[in-house]
Amino acid sequence: MCLHSRDDEPAQVYPEGPRKNYPSDVTARQSLNNRITFMRNLRKQKRKQNKHFARPAPIPDPGILWDSS
């Protein structure tokens, strides 16, 4: 589309030109990296929870704690 004005060369107008990138826009690579780090952290948490709940803490013998002498 050309706009004609007096004594000037026609200027080219791009109504759908390059879009300005906003800081809040997330690229595909960034979202992929975020997902990878989230999955790694999730795996670490699951491993930690499995170690924690694998063997319950032994219940102490009540005779040792409550000495009636």
From TrEMBL:
Q: Where is this region: Disordered?
A: 1-25, 44-69
Q: Where is the composition biased (Basic residues)?
A: 44-54
From what superkingdom does this record's organism come? Eukaryota
What is the protein name stated in its UniProt record? Answer: RIKEN cDNA 1700015G11 gene
Q: What is the lineage of its organism?
A: Eukaryota, Metazoa, Chordata, Craniata, Vertebrata
